[in-house]
Amino acid sequence: MKFEKICVLGLGYIGLPTASTFATHGLQVLGVDVNRQVVDTLQNGGLHIHEPGLRTLFQAAIGSGNLIVEDGPQAADAFIIAVPTPFYEDKRADLSFVKSAAEAVVPHLRAGNLVVLESTSPPRTTVDIVAPILEKSGLRAGKDFFLAYSPERVLPGQILSELIENARVIGGVDRLSAEAGRDLYAIFVRGEIVLTDATTAEMVKLMENTYRDVNIAIANEFSRLAERFGIDIWEAIAIANRHQRVKILNPGPGVGGHCISVDPWFLVEAAPDLTPLIQASRHVNDSQPQVIVELVRKAVGSLHGRVIAVLGLAYKPDVDDLRESPAIDVARLLGEGGALVRSYEPYKPGARLEGLHVVPSLEQALAEAEVIVLLVRHKPFLELRPAQIARLTPARLIVDAVNAWDAPSWQAAGFVVSRLGVRKSRVMAVDE
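Predicted structure:
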């Protein structure tokens, strides 16, 4: 199947790189977003998200004339729906953006078109929700137009390379729809393209992220056990991982981002009676911010009136993505406990978050701090040195929730260091 013009609905962390990549590979691309501020920013050549290399790619796409940004779709050969799928407070999937995007496509859908849903969704969303909406056009999915599901499987911070190099899963409502999807993504994908049905493709995406969530949960439980038993979890993990069939992940403040912290709930919603392990893992990871707050409380005593510098608000290192970030939960919980929290996020210093005092510089975060709480292993934080920090702050107490700083070095500089998963008087090297 040949494509000349495509329409990408949703210009976030996935939609914008996807639209820009197609445009730089010669297709005419209409990028659509309902957020007027996002549209205005992009039309003026700016970016509303941070991703390494994206600015150069986007400017090349715009400069070529192949990428145009608007607030509504137009006729095209293919439509890609890449809108958010958040969840409600009761953890049910909020598919309102997916439904709205599908409704927006209906007036422009023509026989022979391809529609691809990329948004992470509960099983059967493509066939039970998207197909009926699109069929309001009078056309039938799999007969008059092609319909497929193809989940993004990329890591923030590496999106541009993984978008091209990673294997791609394409699930069609029928074989011809899957093949049409293959023809579209083969324009730029170098990785293997695997064809299956739509519901299997939906399940694959959820399985991948749920697998990660379960493995992070056991690491977080191990960190709690280490404190109970009086050992260093980081030392224990390093030793355990020497076994050729063991790969324990690192504990931390919890799980965030739009995928791993969200996707498992879609499986729980679809089959609550079959998912006790998944539910338990979610509860472990969702409760991890409280564990970090308790670690801080044990280190400082009462939180009331204590000035605390929180370093890092993103959900993972070296990205500006704050979605579902456990670091934000930690900062808010510290504030609710009576602390005066000054939060600093180097990749989004101008962030405005309800209930948080976010400062634009490290110096402002540290200036009056009594305690430093490190929540994200950002490269700029890894490069900090004890003497440098000592000049910026009166704080001499550090709570390291991600094992980012070498405790002996900081202790030698006069800092008292508390670490997640460590209750051990003497730190031994693994090789001792």
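Summary: The mean pLDDT is 95.
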